[in-house]
Amino acid sequence: MTTIEAPARTGTAEPVPAALAELAAGRPVVVLDDREAHLVFAAAHATARLVAFAVRHTSGLLRAAISAERADELRLPPMTSADDRRGGAVHAVAVDAVAGVTTGISAADRARTITALAEPRTAPDDLARPGHVVPLRVGSHGVLAHRGPAEAAADLAALAGLSRAGAFDQLIGLDDPTLLAPAAEARAFAREHGLAVLSIDDVVAHRMRRDGVVRRCAEARLPLAAGTFRAVGYRSLLDEHEHLALVQGWPEGSSPVHVHRECALSAVPGAAHCGCRRRLDIALEDCARRGEGIVVLVRGDMTSGTCPATDPRGQHLADLLAEAITTDLRSSDRPTSAGRTGVYARGHA
Ligand SMILES: [Zn+2]
User: Fold this and answer.
1) How far is the CA of 304 from the centre of ligand 1 (A)?
2) Model confidence over 271-282: pLDDT tens digits?
3) Same domain assignment for residues 127 and 245
4) Between the N and C ends of the chain, which has fewer C-beta atoms within 10 Å?
5) Which residue range(s) make up the domain with 35?
6) Are 32 and 132 members of one domain?
7) 309 with 260: CB under 8 angstroms?
């Protein structure tokens, strides 16, 4: 079996910069998620040895995450119209590179195809359909819009200064290769091979710090039944909406935070399937009584006609926006405020 050499690790304690240095140097990293672990490498740096290493230790179904825009340019439509990934990456038509490839399935052939997907000069006719590498179409906001391995792979490749194309596959178990590797085994695998380890949450946090996701745009006093609140408006860089924070006092790390996702049903008196309106009223009353606290009103798509309290779609984005807004309120309203670990209650909790 071909293995890759031990890495020259950067030695930094920050998981994302360390991983980016590895990816830029053409080495794979291990990305942990809640239930599984993925081996990820930059598609631009795919080699036969690297793909062989990946195939040896993963499920073998190597995928290449690229932007949906690039997939359109390459004429790689979704594999099926019924690919419901709840807003996540969509499987596209599988491909092989045309040039330099024989059957398409060998590690050398797949490496050629993966690099072709990362190469900006690749044209639609440079790819044969169907093939042995499955491209995944990821959204332009990556992990900030959807917290998944495909988004993490594409974002990491771009953050490493390479083409926004990342190859990834689930690691299989060390003890039982018929199953996927749990986190502890994935960490052991990374130690054995000297690979950097990070989580998708690390990528999300890194991008939030680096890119920022909200801009404060307006502020006013707002009299409500519960009391008069300071209303602070935010423009989101991740969607088309403006979101609102209703604030009592000067937010500290210990101030309570309530997140309310906009709900079409909440405006309907007595709507039986709305679980969020009553909680919103209680949160506002609680903040007014304490004289401190934040209620974040996250606007969203209300066309589904369901209460967000019963619909997890959009929760990741709502949590990100709420975190960015509360961070801004805590850091900019009173610069001397300390702490970042307030009570964090979701509207549907
Ligand atoms: Zn509701």
Assistant:
1) 12
2) 888 889 899 999
3) no
4) N
5) 15-209
6) yes
7) no
